[in-house]
Amino acid sequence: MRARITGTGMSVPDGILSNADLEKIVDTTDEWIVTRTGIKERRMAEEGQSLSDFAIPAAERALEMAGVEGADVDLVICATISSDRLFPATSCIIQDAIGAKDAPAFDLSAACTGFIYGLNIGTQFIEAGRARNVLVVGGEMLTQIVDWSDRATCVLFGDGAGAVLLQATEQNRGVLGYAMHADGALADLIERPGGGSRSPISHAMIDAGLANIRMRGNETFKKAVRRLAEVSVEALAECELGPRDVDWFIPHQANKRIIDAVGQRLAVPDGATYVNVERYGNTSAASVPIALDELNRAGRVEDGQIVLMTAFGSGLTWASAVVKW
Ligand code: UT7
C-alpha cells in the first residue's frame, strides 16, 4: 500500500506587505531584503483573522480536487507553531469544519519542517492500513508573533496555509521514501521562548520580548544548507534515486540564497527547482504545501514525475519526502 497525493489546496490572506512597507517600520531597504533573501512581499492576515481561517479553505480545496468528502477523512494532521489557541489543537477545528466526524486529529510542532513531518506520518498510517484518507495541513500566522522592532527577523515571515489529501493506492506511486531528523542541542537557534511552561504568560515576559520569534539567522543559514542537501540525498537513496532523477524540487521557501545553495550542492536538473519566496516570504509549515499547490494547479506536475520536497526549521528539525506523482 502506498500514500498518493490526490488533492492540493492553499489559502493566503489578501493583504500584501511589501518591502517598501517594511522600510517605514524598521531600518531596512528593499535592496537589502531582496539581495539577502529574495523576498519582495509577503501576505499578512488582518486583525481578528486566525490560522483556521486559512487552514480550512486550504483543506477544502484539497478535498475538492481529490473528490473526497470530509466525512471520509480518517485522520487530520495540522503542522503549525501558530495555532488558533494554545489548545485545543487547530486540527480539531479543521476536523469539525470539514465534517470529518470523530476522525482523530492532532497538531504537530516541527516548525518549518512540520508539513513534511506530517506528510511522512500520514504516509505511515496509510502504509500500515490504519487510514485510507489523511488530510495534512501546514499553516502559520507568523506576522502575529514576529518582533516588529527586530529588522533581522520581521522582514522574513508571512502568513498562509497549504494542504494535501493523501489517499491509499495499490499502485506504485505516491510517497516512495523519506528521511526525518532533529537536533535539540540547537533548540535556541530559532525559538519563541515565552508563553509555554518555561516562561508562562506574564506582563514581564511580554515586555522582555519573549513572546516573539528570535533567530540567530547566520548560524541557521549554514546549518540549513548542509542539512537540506544531506536529508534530500538520504530520502532519494531510500528510493534508489539520485538528484538527477528529480523532476521537481520543492524546498522550504526561507531564503532564495539557501534554495540556490542547496540546489547547487544537490545538482538537481536545471529548471527543476520551484521558487515562490519572492511573493510569500517564509511561511514556515505552509511554505512547501503552498508551493506544491501552485505548481500542481498550474498543471506543471505530470503523471509519473519525481517530486522532492525538503524543509528545515526550529528544533532543529529537517526532513525530505520523495513523491512519484
Ligand atoms: O525557516 C527556518 C529556517 N530559517 C532560515 O533558514 C533563515 C536563515 N537565515 C537567513 O536567511 C539569513 O541569515 C538572514 C536573511 C536572516 C540574514 O542574512 P545574513 O546574510 O545572514 O545577514 P547577517 O545576519 O549576517 O547580518 C548582516 C548585516 C548585519 O549588519 P552588520 O552587523 O554587518 O553591520 C545586520 O545587522 O545585515 C544587517 N541586517 C539588516 N540590514 C538591513 C540584518 N537584517 C537587516 C535588514 N535590513 N532587514
Report on this structure.
It is a single chain. The protein is of the alpha/beta class and 325 residues long. It is globular. The model has no long low-confidence stretch (mean pLDDT 98). Strand 4, helix 4 and strand 5 form a beta-alpha-beta unit. The protein folds into 2 domains: 2-172, 3-Layer(aba) Sandwich (Peroxisomal Thiolase, Chain A, domain 1); 176-324, Thiolase/Chalcone synthase (Peroxisomal Thiolase, Chain A, domain 1). It is built from 11 helices and 13 strands. The strands form 4 sheets. A 5-stranded mixed β-sheet has the order 1-7-6-4-5, sandwiched between helices. Strands 8-13-12-11 form a 4-stranded mixed β-sheet, with helices on both faces. The protein has a two-stranded antiparallel ribbon with strand order 2-3. The site of oxa(dethia)-CoA (UT7) has 21 residues, from helix 2, helix 6, helix 8 and strand 12. Residues 28, 32-33, 36-37, 112, 151-152, 155, 190, 217-218, 220-221, 224, 254-255, 258, 282, 312-313 line the site of oxa(dethia)-CoA (UT7).
What is this structure, in a nutshell?
This protein is of the alpha/beta class. It is 34% helix and 24% strand.
How do the strands and helices of this protein lay out in sequence?
Layout: E1 2-11, E2 16-18, H1 19-23, H2 30-37, E3 41-43, H3 51-66, E4 75-79, H4 90-98, E5 105-108, H5 114-127, E6 133-141, H6 151-154, E7 159-169, E8 174-182, E9 190-191, H7 203-207, E10 214-215, H8 217-238, E11 248-251, H9 256-266, H10 277-280, H11 287-297, E12 306-313, E13 317-324
Parallel strand pairs: 4-5, 4-6, 11-12
Antiparallel strand pairs: 1-7, 2-3, 6-7, 8-13, 9-10, 12-13
The protein binds oxa(dethia)-CoA (UT7).
